[in-house]
Amino acid sequence: MPHEDFTSVLQVKTINAIVVVDHSDRGSDFLFVSNTPLEASELDDREYNQCDPVLQHCKHSTRPIVWNQNTYTEAGLGWRWEWQARFGFHSGVALALHLPQKRHFFFGIDCDQPLPSDSREVARMTAELSLFTVYAQDVALKVLLPPEPEVDPPKLTRRELEGLMWTMEGKTAWEVGKILSISEQTAVRHLVNAARKLDCINKHQAVVKAMRLGLIR
């Protein structure tokens, strides 16, 4: 999907994909793929990347981070936020996938204004970002790891499949519950069960694997 299409779908200004390779003797190497304005190229500075609070969060966690000015102010880098905000980096969402051989894949979306005040809208953006990133993880694992032996797909219930299909459409567990006329807690349980049966660590990875196995389309 071209940069322009993806940013328009999520209604954001820029996207950033960063591959980080750690070295035991000389820190980390960073490789950027982005539609960041050329004027903001200083953001790729190695020394700054070593202390950036968003990158540091992603390097040590797989949980998405919703960031804004406070994220940088609390890290003592408020001046840096003021500088990057001029180029459209006002707020955003980022997450990481940690791959073999000390490699990390960071993916983020950046907005030139505050994120929506509606927490459900932010949750939707985060869910869509997570799903897109898992597609990248699936490709990366195919390249980095030997192929898995073919096995018969697990048996998923109708509700588990429905939950995965709506998650594929970017719906949150709360929205899945509303669509299926069940509680959010029940929707979460179906998604957790589906992920467990598919031997996946989260619902987004389960969606990709279910698609690969032909369980959902």
Automatic annotation (TrEMBL):
<dbReference type="InterPro" id="IPR036693">
    <property type="entry name" value="TF_LuxR_autoind-bd_dom_sf"/>
</dbReference>
<keyword id="KW-0238">DNA-binding</keyword>
<dbReference type="GO" id="GO:0003677">
    <property type="term" value="F:DNA binding"/>
</dbReference>
<protein>
    <submittedName>
        <fullName>LuxR family transcriptional regulator</fullName>
    </submittedName>
</protein>
<dbReference type="InterPro" id="IPR000792">
    <property type="entry name" value="Tscrpt_reg_LuxR_C"/>
</dbReference>
<dbReference type="Pfam" id="PF00196">
    <property type="entry name" value="GerE"/>
</dbReference>
<keyword id="KW-0804">Transcription</keyword>
<dbReference type="Pfam" id="PF03472">
    <property type="entry name" value="Autoind_bind"/>
</dbReference>
<dbReference type="InterPro" id="IPR036388">
    <property type="entry name" value="WH-like_DNA-bd_sf"/>
</dbReference>
<dbReference type="GO" id="GO:0006355">
    <property type="term" value="P:regulation of DNA-templated transcription"/>
</dbReference>
<dbReference type="InterPro" id="IPR016032">
    <property type="entry name" value="Sig_transdc_resp-reg_C-effctor"/>
</dbReference>
<keyword id="KW-0805">Transcription regulation</keyword>
<dbReference type="InterPro" id="IPR005143">
    <property type="entry name" value="TF_LuxR_autoind-bd_dom"/>
</dbReference>
<feature type="domain" description="HTH luxR-type">
    <location>
        <begin position="149"/>
        <end position="214"/>
    </location>
</feature>
